[in-house]
What we know:
elongated; mainly alpha; 9 helices; 2 domains; Arc_rbn_hlx_hlx
Amino acid sequence: MSKKLSVPEIRVTSAEQQGIFAQAADPITPLKEIDMNGATLVELEDIVKAAHQSFQSHLGDALQAGLIAGKALLMAKKQFTYDRQTGGFRGWLERIEVSKSTAYRYIELATNEPIVSQARTLSEAMERLAQHRAEQRALQAKEEKVEIKRRRVTLKLSDKRDQKLEKIAQNRGVDISTLMKEIIEQWLASQP
């Protein structure tokens, strides 16, 4: 027994089909057309949920778009050398109508992808970057403080001993601070 193919009763034109695809690609379109003045609380709840879901998904898309733009900008930046006539990379940004601050925000996303990859939205990614920058500044400040404490040693030597140290340092081909460091390290190593 052969099976008959069923033909749909309603045919759709290509223009109508494109409209259906566009509506499916942009879930906010049907929400724009709703008259909310006479909507019930249940209908408004559905509208809010659909709009919120669209908003959340678009924020995730914004983060992905920012990462892609940042990677492309990094690649483009490598191809530029500064030219007074064209302005180099910054001149190119002006020509493609992307502000310098936006471009560098995209670049920051791309260069810190491991930090922002767990974020669900662009704003969450930017918060993570801000927190990372603050942690890095605190860590750097702590390291600088430690290094400064380590370097600040004042020795009061007689002129004769100071000249002797300078002569020894010259003979070894190092500066006085390097010589002092070597002497102190040797002395510390000899201590029990």
